[in-house]
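[agent] plan:
  1. take the single chain provided in the ticket
  2. run structure prediction with default settings
  3. attach structure tokens to the ticket
  4. add a short note for the reviewer (M.T.)
[agent] executing step 1
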Amino acid sequence: MTNTPRINRFLFVLYILLTVGVLVAALIWPAVRVVAYAPLRDLLFPAFYLPTSAGIEARITVAAPPTLEAWVREAAADFNRQNTLIEVGVISLRGAEAGRRLNASVTDLPDVWIAEAGFVRTSVGGVPYESGGPSVAQDGLAWVAVASSDVGGDLSWRSVADAARSDIRFRVAVPPVGSVEGMAACASAAAEYHQQANLTADLLNDAAFRGWLDELLAAAPNRSRHPRDQLGSRPPEVDAGLILGSDWQQLAKESFIYQPPAYNVVFDFPYLVRTNWYELSEDEANARRIAAERFSDFLLGGGPQGKLVNYGLERAGAEPSVQIVSFDDPAVRALQACWQ
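[agent] step 2 finished; step 3 output follows
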């Protein structure tokens, strides 16, 4: 018979008790399960993971802008495979349509809305969603020009405007009328024109600026078609265009030059959870709220964040290389009338 030291027996029993305690806690509380990864437990007891204290299954719908939709769909598929009682579905929603589609009077509202940027949430106003939320990715505007165009290596709002003014044949592609990208474009143009990163409604409504911008926009042959598509035609339909940085990987890079505006607007994609589920019971509403928070945590994890680069996007909180434009609520309202 082996004469095991008493201290070893004590430590072994303590280890067993701690292991059992962590296992039981992980089966009961989601917060513990996050840090107590146990593949065997998940295999043997998958149904014991309860998204709420009531153990109610939750299916949530996440509305994402087209720029982010493919990434969110991939993340949702991975999340669904790892969770037994939570299922995440994804739909597409442009910020320009959010005010109409997310109105409190509309039935079957998505449980989460990922807006393009914080200013989009401000522009929509009274919808039943949080006023702010964690950023899950990042994007921004970028100028792209045909390598042989007149703008050469100097690519900016001013150089494009000067080229359009000096050559009647110079053509530019800009974001569609009434789009969120158009609002961001107006803010970027105004900031560069005034050399001012902190925009006000007065700066956006300045007559001299608006006249200068209208002259530039007169060189845009098609303001309803995506600028990426106009640049991607063979040959390109325009000499220069303003796109999102995530569109850059879809172009033949060797044929173009690329430069973010000196004053850029960040698309930070805030994750906004519904503030009420008036059509559901309290338990069902709580289950959806917790499921939405779980998916938010998942999107901010290393796996999904590491895949953003595959979609031409940057990680949440990436450090910008240029000045970032900021604007208050009156400036946001002025932006809505700017890009028409």
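[agent] step 4 note for reviewer: The chain has 14 helices and 13 strands.
[agent] ticket updated
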